[in-house]
Amino acid sequence: MIELMGEVTEDAFLGGKLRLRQPKSGHRAGHDAMLLAAATPARSGDRVVDFGSGVGAAGLAVAKRVAGIKPVLVEIDEGLSELARANAIANAIAAEVLVLDVTSTAEKFAAAGLLPDSVDVVQMNPPFNDASRHRASPDGARAIAHVAAAETLDGWIHAARRILKSGGNLVMIWRADGIADVLAALGRGFGSLMVLP
């Protein structure tokens, strides 16, 4: 499947401690993924799920920072999932990689091993650009990764709420001008909130 991705680059993150192969064009990992990883409160033994993991940047960066976590990388794109799997192996990280739409049913999540109340931390950087105010990239992979549908935020948060253990943590990136939408979406099923500008 990687051959179908076209040309890839190998890029260094975390001062070279994490090396990732990713498509030369299209959606690429960058500073958002590293900020998400740095904000993720994981402890050794935690099961950490990265929704929309792409090539695995945020989930693998958390695994490099916190020894002994159990990362699960969830990505809808099969080619990116293959790269994530190869990146985990190349960085000696035992990560599980699942090809799964984050908005899938509870049954599909369970079939993939993501049962209700089974995860300590969910991290995610969902598509967050408003389609009515943002021109989508002509590159299909970038458009999917960057432009949100009306139901994106609620769907991703609902999926996280379903698999998180009581007292678990959700860490996400979203636009500052959409903070009211995030607070409303987190109003059901989540306790204390922290906003890091």
Sheet with most strands: strand arrangement: 5-4-3-6-9
Helix content: 25-40%
Q: What structural category characterises the helix and strand content?
A: alpha/beta
In sequence order, what are the helices and strands, one letter per element?
Answer: EEHEHEHEHEEHEHEH
Count of the separate structural domains: 1
Question: Which key terms come to mind for this protein?
Answer:
single chain, 197 residues, alpha/beta, Rossmann fold, five-stranded parallel sheet, two-stranded antiparallel sheet, 32% helix, 23% strand
Please give a structural write-up.
This protein has a five-stranded parallel beta sheet, with helices on both faces. A two-stranded antiparallel ribbon has the order 1-2. Strands 7-8 form a two-stranded parallel sheet. The protein is globular and about 40 Å long. Helix 5 links the parallel strand 7 and strand 8 (147-148). The chain is an alpha/beta fold. It has one domain (2-185): 3-Layer(aba) Sandwich (Rossmann fold). The model has no long low-confidence stretch (mean pLDDT 88). Helix 1 (31-39) crosses helix 2. 32% of the residues lie in helices and 23% in strands.
